[in-house]
Design a protein that fits this description.
alpha/beta; 8-stranded parallel beta sheet; 8 strands; globular
Length: 260
Amino acid sequence: MGRKFFVGGNWKCNGTTEEVKKIVTTLNEAEVPSEDVVDVLFLAEVVVSPPFVFLPFVKSLLRSDFQVAAQNCWVRKGGAFTGEISAEMLVNLGVPWVILGHSERRALLNETNEFVGDKVACALSQGIKVIACVGETLEQRESGSTVAVVAAQTKAIADKVSNWAHIVLAYEPVWAIGTGKVATPAQAQEVHLELRKWLHDNAGAEVAASTRIIYGGSVNGANCKELAAQPDVDGFLVGGASLKPEFIDIIKAATVKKNV
């Protein structure tokens, strides 16, 4: 069976109650079956990630065929960790997914590869599925170290995890996030293929074949189909565009995979 296309929407630190209600209404009213009458949701798994404070609200309003994700969680059980949210709390709220290792947290909050690996292991141990982010900065790309950087980030996860069934790997070149610059389809495919080779050599052929590797970095309605057509691009982690109606167009890019 092929890898099911995955579309995540990372709302980041955005939204008021009214704005969130409007976004969810747009998603709920969307005609997700496409023009050629193929039900996109047979082809795509869709997860949206609002800020923590809106998680229960969004979950209560959102259509049942879409799921929610937290944008982060703490590295161990709850306790005297002011401001943190534990994986157990997410389980208690019925939140099935979490985004971990996003480059904004790596850069702004100094989350190391090892720390992210520990977080992934902690979330999985509680039964939460993980969107694990990797990606290089512009300086790293220009110095030719892209593959070494994403391999090291992936290794830190592999060192702590033996079962990859509930991990989606998100390749997000830092230089493309929120900048309007997008990795070309060829650039995205090149890194995704290298990540799959790394998984093959270090986690096994089955893990490499079944793990979804999704692309993030200024994905929008205009560029999503060309990116989706790449053989090792299994979906998207969408930032700004996930707050707009064009998120539906990005979900519909799943239909491209029918013909690949």
